[in-house]
Design goal:
With 72 residues, the protein is mostly helical. It is 90% helix and 0% strand. It contains one helix and no strands. The protein starts with 6 loop residues before the first helix and ends with a helix.
């Protein structure tokens, strides 16, 4: 009668557990990378929007200054 686990069974169990942990870590890493890409895209859009707002305000300021010079 066989008692307990043999070395082969323990190695197979350890291999299966290692594969499950690797799959979990890989999935987590992919999610983190996608989250960083998403956050980068949001930040990039905010920066572009701010730059566009600054350019629009600069143009408005130049037009206002030209009108002031014409009226004087």
């Amino acid at each position: 009668m066989k008692r307990g686990f043999g070395v082969i069974e323990l190695l197979i169990g350890f291999l299966m557990l290692s594969i499950l942990v690797a799959i979990f870590l890989n999935t987590t890493l992919i999610q983190v990378q996608e989250s960083k890409k998403y956050n980068y895209n949001i930040g990039s859009e905010q920066v572009n929007s701010t730059i566009n707002d600054i350019e629009v305000n600069k143009q408005k300021s130049l037009k206002f200054q030209e009108e002031l010079l014409r009226n004087n």
